Every structure is written in structure tokens, then in C-alpha cells.
Amino acid sequence: MDLIQEADGRLRPCNGGAVYNLSRALGLQGVGTLYLNPLSADRFGRGMADAIGQAGVTLARSEPAHEPTSLAVVGLDAQGKASYSFYREGVADRQVTATEMSAQCASHPTLKVIATGCLALVADDADKYLPWLTAQRAAGRLVVVDANLRPAIVPDMAAYQASVMNALGQAHIVKVSDDDLVTLGFSEADPIKAARALLAQTPAQWLALTLGAKGAVLMQREGAAWHATETAPVKVADTVGAGDCFLAGMLVALLERPAMQNAANADALQLDAKDIEHILCHAIASASLCVQEIGCVPPTLEQVRARTQQSKATFKAL
What class, spelled out in words, does domain 19-27+100-317 have in CATH? Predict the structure, then answer.
């Protein structure tokens, strides 16, 4: 649960959590989605279960957990950019095991894509998520990992960086922000060069780099890269959930492409410039709609399509 600080010091509760946001955003854009983390039986958890259910998302564990909902206190700067502090010891969403998650995925044979990131990548939970990611990649599913680092949560940055890199090492598609690259220790002044350096250290075929108001880049392992940015102005309320909605939009658009539908396996995915333009423009529109709301309010598929038609993003090869 995101507790967003308002100007008068009060905290506004908003449903949140990166993977929860992603799942809800996917559901609202019409993608059948399975959410693996348990939700609490407390007031916050019941509200989150209602909201994700209304988005059409399936809860892998229908029975609520006895543990409380984890909390994030969100501060906003003058531009609406969010910073976080977390309260998540003994909380509901961490009550998972690799064996349970793998069994839940196996029970859905039509499952095509696995996605995780952010707080799931902390070193303390590596024994849960890393074996699960490894098993899903071995099962032939497309693995997507969003680094989405939260350095304020960890006392040992080296262990956190190593845990994130281990998870990225199972990904077919990596998503990072320019801030993530700095936190991971990629110090090149040009974030595109830093992203290429990161991609070279993973087996991933694709990397999506978000650059805030400067748009986003999608790059292929062999070196090709494309950049897109919106031309219409965006009035930012806050950036909470922007990256999650970007990734949801990206996956929605990817699943629409014949290349994804026809790929024999995750390693065989090939995208051309037309695919990339569709994917990036849809992803950016999803994020732009999110940042105009307080907290993470994911857009529907109809809203995203309307925005891409009304305000076409610029697109170019790098």
C-alpha cells in the first residue's frame, strides 16, 4: 500500500506495489494475468483484492494471508518524482516459495510470459524468486525482469546489486530506468551506453530503457536500438507506477504482434522496426496516462489506444 505524502503532511493511501501495479495494468488492458503474491486479510489487502479482481486478474492464492499488508511511504519532489521508504517485515506479499509459485504457474498451461522485479529482487528473497525464474525460463516461458531498484530498502548495496543481476541473468527481456543503471553501478554518462553495458552482462535478447520525460529506448542484443517519445505535453501529478504501466503497455503491445504469436519459443522472438514502434508508442502512452493521476491508476486498453491515435509519438532508430 502506497501512503503518499500530501502538501499538508497527511498520507493518502493508494493501492500499490510494483508487481501488483503491473498485474492490474495488464488486466485493465485485457491480458489474462495470474498474480502470485498473497494479499492480506486486513483492510488494505481486502481493498487490493477487490481492485485487482475488478481488473480481471486471477489470484493464485484465493485465501488471504494472516500477515499484514506491506507499506511504502511515498515522498514527492517539486516535479512529482517519487521516493520511497518501506515497511515490509513479516508481510503478506512475501509469504511465497519457489515450489508453490512454480506449481501455480504449471497449473496454467497457456501461460506465456513471466514477469517480476523491484522488491522481489532483494537478496533476502533470492531463494524464493531466483529458483522460480530459473524454472520458468527452463519451461520455455518468456521471462521479463524489471530491475526497478529501491536502494533505500537495503543495508548492503553490493548484495542487492548482485541479487538483481542474478535475476536479470534469467531474463529474455530486461527493463531498467536511467536511475536503475546508476544504482547498479553502470556509471557511463550516456544512459544508452550504460544500458548496452548492462545488456552485455546478461543473456537477454532485449532491453527496454525508460528515460522519464525523454521517452524510452528498446534495444536488441546485437546492437540495434530505437527511441520514442511523446510530442504532446503531459501534466505530471506524480510518477508513482509510471514504470509499471510502461511495462504493462509494452507487454500488451508485444503480445499483439504476430512475431510473438508465431515464435517457436522465447529465444526465437524476432521483432522488426514496425513491431518496435508499436510496442514503444503503446508503452509510453500507458505511462503518460498513469503519471497524470495521483498514485498508480493504470489506464484501460481503450484509453491507451485513444492516446496513441490522438498524440502519435516520435520514433527513430539510433
Answer: alpha beta
Strand order in the sheet with 11-14: 11-14, 2-5, 71-76, 82-87
Please state, rounded to an integer, the average pLDDT across all residues of the chain.
Answer: 93
Half-sphere exposure of 22 (CA within 13 A, CB side): 25
The dihedrals phi and psi of 129, each to the nearest 5 degrees, come to: -90, -35
Continuous segment of H or E residues that includes residue 209: strand 206-210
The pTM of the full predicted model, rounded to 2 decimals, is: 0.94
The model's pLDDT over 124-174, given as tens digits with 9 standing for 90+, comes to: 999 999 999 999 999 999 999 999 998 888 889 999 999 999 999 999 999
Residue 114: phi, psi to the nearest 5?
-115, 135
Q: C-alpha cell of 162?
A: 548482485
157, 156, 178, 181: which is closest to 168 by C-alpha? 181
At which residue does the C-alpha cell 514504470 appear?
243
Strands 225-229 and 314-317: antiparallel
CA distances from 181 to 62, 135, 187, 250, 283 (A): 36, 26, 8, 20, 20
Per-residue pLDDT reduced to its tens digit, 88-100: 999 999 999 999 9
* Residue spans per domain, the chain: 19-27+100-317
Instruction: Select from 243, 202, 242, 237 the least CA-distant residue to 219.
Output: 202
What are the tens digits of pLDDT across the range 199-223? 999 999 999 999 998 999 999 999 9
Alpha-carbon gap, residue 82 to 178, rounded angstroms: 15
